User: What shape does this take?
Amino acid sequence: MSGQLTLYTYWRSSAAYRVRIGLALKGLEYASEPVHLVQDGGQQHAAAFAALNPQELVPVLRHGDQVLRQSLAILEYIDETWPKPALLPADAGGRARVRALAQAIACDVHPLNNLRVLQYLERELDVAAPAREAWVRHWIGSGLDAVEKLLAGDPGTGAFCHGDAPGLADCVLVPQLYNARRFGLDLAGWPVIARIDAACAALPAFAAAVPEAQPDGPRS
Amino acid sequence: MSGQLTLYTYWRSSAAYRVRIGLALKGLEYASEPVHLVQDGGQQHAAAFAALNPQELVPVLRHGDQVLRQSLAILEYIDETWPKPALLPADAGGRARVRALAQAIACDVHPLNNLRVLQYLERELDVAAPAREAWVRHWIGSGLDAVEKLLAGDPGTGAFCHGDAPGLADCVLVPQLYNARRFGLDLAGWPVIARIDAACAALPAFAAAVPEAQPDGPRS
Assistant: This one.
C-alpha cells in the first residue's frame, strides 16, 4: 500500500500514544500533525479537525486518501496493511484474547478518564479536583486489577501480554500505565503488568512513542 | 469449529445484546446463562462468575473450552470462526470504517453510561437522579451526533451502517439506540441512524435479540 502517513496526535493523549507505538513497531515513517487538546479551547473542536473527525477526538491517521479514526481500528488497519511484525496472533482464540485485553482498557478504563469526561465532572457536576482524581484512580485501579488477573491466570501471557513479542494489547496497556503513574498509582500492586511494562520500556519502538519524546511535548 | 456455545448474558445489557445480534445473524444456536446485574448485589460479582471474567462484566461467550470476553472481541471471533454471512467487509479500509463506527459507541458512549458508572456517580459523588439522567443523555446525544455525521457523510453507508447488509457496526448501534429511547431521547434528530435502526428492526435476527424477547427479561 502506498500513500503518505500523517498522524493527528497530542503528546499526552493515550489513544494517540497507542497508535504511535503501533507505527513504531512496524517501522513506519509518518508525519505528526499536533492537535492541542487544551489550547484555543481545544483544537480538536476547530472546524477543520471536526470535519476530519466528527467525534472531535485524536488520533486520526491519514493514509493517502483514507481517513482512519479510533485507535484500535487504526491499529488493526496498520496490522492488516503491513503484516510484519504481527500485532495480533495467528489463531482466532489468541486474537480474541489480545483484543479483549486491549478493550478491557480501551473501552472500560480509558474513556472514563478522558479529558472531556473530567471537564464534565468539573463543569456540570461541580466535582472538586480531589474527587475527580479519586474517580480516575478508581477506574484505573479496578481496571488494572482485572487485567492483572487476566494476565496472571493465563498460559498465553509471556514476556509481553500475549507471547514473547509485543502486540496490540501492549500498545494499549503501556499508555494506560503512563496515565496510572501520572495519577500517583504504584504499579507494584500489579506485578505481571509491571514486568510487561518494563519489557516494553526496553524496546526502541516504545521509547520513541512516549509523550515526552514527541515534537509537541514539553521541552526538557 | 465444534463446541457448544453458552452466552452469559443479562437481558438489558447492551454489550450482551450486541453479541446476541451477532449470534443470530450467523444463525448460531446457543445456551443462555443469565447473570442478573442487580439481584443478589449483582450476580456478576459472585465468585464463580468473577473467575470466568475478572472484569465482572457481561457478556462472556463460552465456545467449547474457550472463554471469550469483551463484546467486540467476541463479535470478531464469531466472524472469524463462522465467516458467513460476514460481519466485516472484505477490504481493510471498509473494516477500519466499520470498527471505528462500532468503537465510537462501544468505547466513547456506552462505558460512560454503564451500571457501575451510574452507581459510582450516585454512591460516591452524590449525583442525584435527574443529573445522572442528564449525564446519560449528554454522552448518548453527543456520541450519536458524531455517528450520524460519520454515516451521513460517507458513500460507504447503505441500507445499513456499511453497505446493504447488516454487520458489526449495526450490532453495536442498535443496542445503543435501545438505551437512547429508554432515556427519553428521540431518534428523529438523527435521520440516517433512525433509518438504519428501522431496517435492522425488520430483520428476524435483530428481533430475536431484543431485551424483551430474552428468557431472563420481564414477562409481558
Observations:
- Chain B has two domains: 7-85, 92-206.
- The longest helix of chain B spans residues 129-152.
- Chain B has nine helices and four strands.
